[in-house]
Amino acid sequence: MHVFLHIGTEKTGTTSIQQFLYENRQVFRNAGTMIPASLGRGNHRKFPAMFLAEDHVDDFLSALNLHDPQKRQNAVIRWKQVFLAELAHHRPDKVIISSEHLHSRLRDPREIRALARFLRRLFSSITIVLYIRDPLATAVSLYSTAIKAGNTLNAPPPPSDPYWNATVNHRQTIETWGAAFGLETLRIRLFETARFRENSLLSDFMHACNEPAQGYSIPEPANKTLDQLGLALLARVNRLIPATLPDNRPNPARKGLLAYFERNYSSGPRYVPPPELARNYETAFRDSNEWVRQRFFASQHTLFAPVSYPKAQPLAFSPARLDKMAQTLANDWLKTGCRPNR
Question: Residue 50's CB: how many other CB atoms inside 10 A?
Fold first, then answer.
């Protein structure tokens, strides 16, 4: 039995891939491939949480209120038992597990080694599917996602930021996962449309997982992008209506807020990173990218195609005006039964 473990990275179409896998799980099952239902709908979010170190409580565990060590241990044991039961019931030839949080949350080599030991006990062979993207393009997309999740950033952090750095330092990722699983298990793909098989991410992913072309259902595109004004305004609203309550539970007052912004702030000019930030990212990850190119894509002149951004368009509103707009929107939003109707 073989497992394909899709670990991300973040901002490489993982949501689209996971929706595709979920919607077509019966088609895969008919062909002998299991898409586990026990690990999560779409994103197999429970799987990375099973292997976090005891002193590592991430956002997923916090949202489930699993801070108590015993409660957490019981939950992890239960998740593993349900997964093993599903595996025993279907007895597939192949399993595909997908979660970008395998890469973004399992940052301690001990955690990744624990994952490797678990998989080796169950599967005769393992393939790690890893998509990598230009660091600056990843940072810009990750910035947008952070704002949509409730962050208050004014711009992407510098490349020295630990989280951002670990996300786009592809040499570090490859060496860390290669040390636990063996470099020969890694199937590295470039997140660029021109590099995709048939210019399609889903076709490329199916090829990476050795899956034949079948009568798949293709989901609608996921993750609508906010425009420059939407990001600036939502970051301010996030300060007024935070994503989480003091006890770390999701803030129910934000229900529908992101959908409102996606409806009304997705058609204007996109955010453009400052030239200095772009230069810093290029400099910071030049050696890492070249290391990856030489070892895995030696026939290419560069690892990634150059990313070109249009000239930044200044916002039509001053910071003070944006603050006032955000305050008005937040006040209206928090009124009982009141939601802006635009």
Answer: 18
Q: Give the span between the Cα atoms of 147 and 145, in whole angstroms.
A: 5
- Alpha-carbon distance of 127 to 113, in angstroms, equals 15
One-character DSSP codes across 194-239: GGSGGG-HHHHHHHHTTPPP--PPPPPP--PPP-HHHHHHHHHHHH
Q: What is the DSSP letter of 121?
A: H
Provide the pLDDT confidence category of residue 337 given band limits of 50, 70 and 90. low
CATH 3.40.1130 fits 2-208, yes or no: no
Whether pLDDT at 220 is above 90 = no
Structure tokens at 130: 């890893």
How far, rounded to the nearest angstrom, does the alpha carbon of residue 114 sit from its chain's CA centroid?
21
Owner of token pair 């409580």: 57
Proportion of the chain above pLDDT 70, given as a percent: 98
**82: its two tokens:** 């349900």
Residues belonging to the chain = 342
- The pTM for the full model equals 0.91
pLDDT of residue 50: 97
Parse the chain into domains and list their residue ranges. Answer: 2-208, 228-269+313-334
Dig out the tokens for 54 from the structure.
């005891």
Q: Which residue has the higher pLDDT, 231 or 55?
A: 231
